[in-house]
């Protein structure tokens, strides 16, 4: 059978010949193995395949069958347009790519992010038909597909994991990072600035609001890295450090700042506020946080920005800052920035920050090569991405997967998992199109129950239903492998919950994705599915089976619509208020 691809009809024929389901499953798996070995495609061991082959828990047997000495070295990458392994069996074309991983965890990939990699865990017998039907989702990104292999467990099996916001920010990324940080050696920020507000809680319920310090800081064994893609307002950074130390959180020796990161000054904040005031007169204000993020990235793009490494020569630093300030003086009559006062302040700041300045590109890559576990914390969210978001109502960086790679200098082929954090409903701060927005009494009630006020600005957030068109769009861009649903408890008092499942344009056309044209997006009609509410307090639930059936049905429906495995469900603000969902796939 080496030259003829086995199919589901092959499996059915085997069953009709008198074989049991298990016997026919094993026979088909062997035939598939032989076929793909003959076509130089190696399949990384996963529980379904090991059970088909009768090895149950032996990954080594699968590695040997596919012609490799190291069973950790086999990975299959399927083309980005394939929604399941069933497509593979039906004869769709494969992109035959191969990447290798050593026992020490070092990855050398000759593949771009183009497929799904199956990571082995404990196995249970399953038949191919059920297995393939459960390998769901739009597969993209060189990382394992969790609906096949992810088993709920305390340890998250990804050497490099990325946590990203999938909506308009404020999804609760900090909490998941804080929880996962206990399993990682390094926690890193890659983009954004103090416009990101991440709220975390310690074991005693004490709240910490972080803007620049990575959310892994409560894990005392972790080193926290601020990457080159972050714009650093050092006074804010050191104020956060001071508050952490006053609260008893040890920080010394645990923070590193990229020498390539650009500095954000009070002049950038001044310019940000003045520009917003100008736009307010025209009714076209963006609704920025006025933290100076946009002007700081503008300085970077126009190549007159000042980097952390420039603090090593304060005379040169002073000259650069004076020149940078001239632009603001010429542009705004109300410009009141005192450049000399800031230069004097930074002479003191420079001495404090020098021990933290590091070539983080070298540090991160060397750590990865040494097998250290790295957790990367995204700021903001993909729907605010300057390229993929609702432009111009966006942030000034790339909170999507591309910004993570460039913001740390870590190749995307080294990312083992990309986790999307999704609020069970949606929120947005500031202006911009918002298709599933809720108005009136219900919006006010959800805002109060969910405490939906900006961590950075304190502004009330706009409220909306979960938008699956946007979520699928974001999943495609980032190659999500897992999802964390947050704040499910906020919906507990509702009789029914709506899910936005498709957009319809004014001419009646169904839009398959988020349109770039804001005029079109602002006038779409959202079509909803309505599911029953659960009318039960779920804040004390800690296991999947403890959730009400209606809540589980809601989560499962979102998973089916998104095509990505939902592994974690947030049911309250506390650190332990999270439910880990078991896979219903092969495991």
Overview of this protein structure:
This protein is α/β, with parallel strands linked by helices. It has 3 domains: 142 residues, no CATH class; 322 residues, Adenylosuccinate Synthetase, subunit A, domain 3 (Adenylosuccinate Synthetase, Chain A, domain 3); 96 residues, Adenylosuccinate Synthetase, subunit A, domain 2. Helix content is 33%, strand content 16%. The chain has 19 helices and 25 strands. Helix 1 packs antiparallel against helix 2, helix 10 crosses helix 11 and helix 12 packs antiparallel against helix 13. The longest helix is centred in the N-terminal third of the chain and has 18 residues. 49% of the residues are buried. InterPro entries: Adenylosuccin_syn_GTP-bd, Adenylosuccin_syn_Lys_AS, Adenylosuccinate_synth_dom1, Adenylosuccinate_synth_dom2, Adenylosuccinate_synth_dom3, Adenylosuccinate_synthetase, P-loop_NTPase. It catalyses: IMP + L-aspartate + GTP = N(6)-(1,2-dicarboxyethyl)-AMP + GDP + phosphate + 2 H(+). Homodimer.
The helix tally amounts to 19
Q: Which stretches are poorly predicted, pLDDT < 50 over at least 5 residues? A: 36-153
The gross shape turns out to be globular
Measured between the Cα atoms of the first and last residue, the distance is 28 Å
Query: What CATH architecture label of the largest domain applies?
Result: Alpha-Beta Complex
Structural class: alpha/beta
What would you report as the Rg, rounded to the nearest angstrom? Answer: 25 Å
> Would you give the CATH topology of the largest domain?
Adenylosuccinate Synthetase, Chain A, domain 3
Strand segment tally: 25
Main β-sheet, in a few words? 10 strands, mixed
Overall average residue pLDDT? 78
Looking at this structure, what is the CATH superfamily of the largest domain?
Answer: Adenylosuccinate Synthetase, subunit A, domain 3
Q: Share of helix among residues?
A: 25-40%
Pfam family, one: Adenylsucc_synt
GO biological process, one term: IMP metabolic process
Function: Plays an important role in the de novo pathway and in the salvage pathway of purine nucleotide biosynthesis. Catalyzes the first commited step in the biosynthesis of AMP from IMP.
GO cellular component, one term: chloroplast
């Amino acid at each position: 059978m080496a030259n003829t691809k086995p199919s589901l009809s092959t499996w059915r024929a085997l069953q009709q010949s008198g074989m049991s389901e298990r016997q026919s499953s094993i026979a088909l798996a062997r035939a598939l193995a032989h076929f793909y070995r003959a076509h130089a495609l190696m399949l990384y061991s996963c529980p379904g395949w090991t059970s088909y082959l009768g090895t149950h828990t032996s990954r080594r047997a699968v590695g040997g069958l596919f012609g490799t000495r190291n069973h950790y070295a086999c990975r299959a990458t399927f083309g980005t347009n394939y929604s399941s392994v069933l497509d593979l069996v039906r004869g769709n074309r494969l992109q035959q790519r191969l990447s290798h991983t050593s026992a020490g965890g070092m990855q050398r990939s000759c593949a771009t992010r183009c497929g799904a990699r199956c990571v082995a865990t404990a196995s249970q017998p399953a038949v191919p038909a059920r297995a393939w039907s459960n390998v769901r989702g739009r597969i993209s990104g060189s990382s394992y597909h969790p609906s096949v292999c992810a088993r709920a467990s305390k340890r998250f099996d990804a050497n490099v994991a990325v946590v990203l916001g999938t909506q308009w920010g404020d999804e609760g990324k900090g909490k998941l990072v804080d929880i996962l940080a206990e399993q990682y050696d390094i926690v890193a920020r890659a983009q954004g600035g103090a416009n990101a507000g991440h709220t975390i809680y310690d074991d005693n319920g004490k709240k910490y609001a972080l803007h620049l310090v990575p959310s892994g800081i409560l894990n005392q064994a972790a080193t926290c890295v601020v990457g080159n893609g972050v714009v650093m307002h050092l006074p804010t950074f050191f104020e956060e450090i001071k508050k952490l130390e006053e609260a008893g959180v040890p920080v010394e020796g645990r923070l590193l700042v990229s020498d390539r990161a650009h500095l954000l000054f009070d002049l950038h904040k001044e310019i940000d506020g003045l520009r917003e005031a100008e736009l307010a007169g025209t009714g076209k204000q963006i609704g920025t946080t006025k933290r100076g993020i946009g002007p700081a990235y503008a300085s970077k793009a126009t190549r007159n920005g000042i980097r952390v490494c420039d603090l090593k020569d304060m005379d040169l630093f002073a000259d650069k800052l004076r020149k940078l300030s001239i632009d603001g003086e010429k542009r705004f009559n109300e410009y009141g920035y005192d450049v000399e006062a800031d230069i004097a302040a930074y002479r003191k700041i420079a001495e404090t920050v020098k021990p933290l300045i590091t070539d983080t590109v070298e540090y991160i890559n060397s750590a990865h090569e040494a097998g250290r576990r790295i957790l990367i914390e995204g700021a903001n969210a993909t729907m605010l991405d300057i390229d993929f978001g609702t432009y111009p109502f966006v942030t000034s960086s790339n909170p999507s997967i591309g910004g993570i790679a460039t913001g740390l200098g870590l190749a995307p082929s080294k990312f083992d998992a990309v986790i999307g954090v999704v609020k069970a409903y949606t929120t947005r701060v500031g202006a911009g199109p918002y298709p599933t927005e809720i108005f009136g009494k219900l919006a006010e009630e959800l805002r109060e129950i969910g405490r939906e006020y900006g961590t950075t600005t304190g502004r009330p957030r706009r409220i909306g239903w979960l938008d699956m068109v946007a979520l699928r769009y974001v999943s495609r861009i980032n190659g999500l492998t897992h999802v964390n649903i947050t704040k499910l408890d906020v919906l507990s008092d509702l009789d029914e919950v709506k899910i936005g499942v498709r957009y319809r344009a004014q001419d009646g056309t169904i839009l398959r994705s988020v349109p770039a044209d804001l005029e079109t997006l602002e006038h779409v009609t959202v079509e909803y599915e309505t599911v029953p509410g659960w009318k039960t307090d779920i804040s004390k639930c800690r296991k999947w089976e403890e959730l009400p059936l209606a809540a589980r049905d809601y989560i499962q429906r979102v998973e089916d619509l998104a095509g990505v495995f939902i592994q974690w469900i947030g049911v309250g603000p506390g650190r332990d208020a999270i439910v880990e969902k078991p896979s219903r796939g092969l495991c």
